[in-house]
Amino acid sequence: MPAPVPRPLVIILRAMLVLAATGSLVVLAVILPLLWIDLGGVTVAYSIPLVGALGLGVLCLQVVGVCLWHLLTLVLRGRIFSRAAFRSVDVITGAVATGGLLLVLLGVMLSGGTAAPGIVLLIGGAALLAFAAALTVNVARRLLAQAVDRDAQARRLEDELSDVI
Questions:
Q1: In the prediction, which pLDDT does 3 show?
Q2: 2 part of a folded domain
Q3: Which of 35, 61, 117, 130 is the most exposed place for a label (fewest CB within 10 A)?
Q4: Are the C-beta atoms of 10 and 72 separated by less than 8 Å?
Q5: How many domains does the chain have?
Q6: pLDDT digits (tens, 9 = 90+) for 60-92
Q7: Does any domain span residue 116?
Q8: Which domain covers residue 98, as residue numbers?
């Protein structure tokens, strides 16, 4: 049986999630409204999608944080290799893929304006990394499913063996 995850590690990860959540709330409450004010001279047809995409991107990150918190709770309870983890992993995959789509939208919006081509390429690279992360989480989900199935099979075999003994 592998060693359990050390509790201090989970506490550190949770502290990082709290800091990230706090930062994301500052972005939503302060930074995005200031960006909106700075875009005062830009057409509304441009500023609404820009600020909206950025806000939705932050919300995607918050969703990932909540799901990671849930997975850490399962780790502490020794239940990470259970079907209860699937929903959180699926939501993480969807949120990261949605973030990638928002980055593509942002890149398309900026490519039509005065943004430097390098910035648009960087955003495109970030979108590519987001899609790669979503696919990686999907692979991890498949591995989790295999582990859960093997655990269930091992329990059945243990039950059968105890019935024989």
A1: 58
A2: no
A3: 117
A4: yes
A5: 1
A6: 999 999 999 999 999 999 888 888 899 999 999
A7: yes
A8: 7-164
